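Recap quiz, item 2
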Amino acid sequence: MRHFALTIIGRDRAGIVSEVTSVLYQLGCNIADSSCSILGGQFSMILIISHPELHDQQSLSEAFTPLEQNGLSVFLRTLKPGGEEHPEMQGEICMISVYGADKPGIVYRVARELGERQINITDLNTKLIGAKDAPVYVMMIEAILNQGIEIEEVENWMAGLKAELKVDISVRSITPMEL
Amino acid sequence: MAIKDVLLYPNPILKGLCVPIDRLDETVIQLLQDLVDTMVAAGHSVGVAAPQIGDTRRAVVVDVSHSKLGKKQENHGLLQMVNPKIIEREGQTVVREGCMSVPDYTGNVTRAERIVVQFQDQDQQLQVITADGFEAIAIQHEIDHLDGYLFLDRVSSLKTDLFRRK
């Protein structure tokens, strides 16, 4: 079955999910994985969808035209075979909290420390909070630590950044309790 | 001694209410042993509840002493619990849980930090114990199974709830 990545974004209001899923339902699409959230004032939807017969991106795209007319931006991409499968990831999951006075480079510098060590970021959220005259940047990263890497090691990588960026950083294990 | 298959959702047994055990007879001892064997066979998971192996009586086993998280704190080792009941709860903690009956999914669940739980043990003794931390969470998760609750019914936040509280 052909899988597609569908991204929809538009000014938040009630009814967006209903409108989008109505189109998908009428087309006969399956929603495999999805994640939707409000970013700024925009409702943002990311979905992996599939269709048992439709393989043609063009014909799917056309079905979304009414959504565009309702003020939503729609982007559809065809996945390569296997692109819908979640990779097997082994290792401890850690949460890294980074927060402090807003300044350029917070996301990049922290991500670079992880990327250079081939640490896979599986989730990342950032938000600007605080007063207008004293904005605070908050970032939460979930990452999977490669075999043999301990939380303390990640703390050591972050220690230098704390001083450099003048932000607070804490790292902790959030590996799920398998019960 | 028998290692049982762990039932997976949507098996309806996992959503049913389990019945109290009136008499701790040979079949109950057998059930407890099967639960222990199944728990150990599953890479020493930290607990199994009777409905997870298809038995609808109120019995669970918990043992956090072999797990990385449980080892770090005081615990009661292997607990074999018949008709367990939480009689006191204290504090609140959010923990990400997974479950053998719901593979490939985890979620943040709010649990009591410390509980007092009463149960009958395998020797028919009534016990009342206080459990903390990881052990308390494991006991709450397993007792939930006896009432037809999965951790999916308890998920308290999608990922980091920091951004959702307003």
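The longest helix of chain B spans residues 26-41.
The first strand of chain B starts at residue 47 and ends at 49.
End of item.
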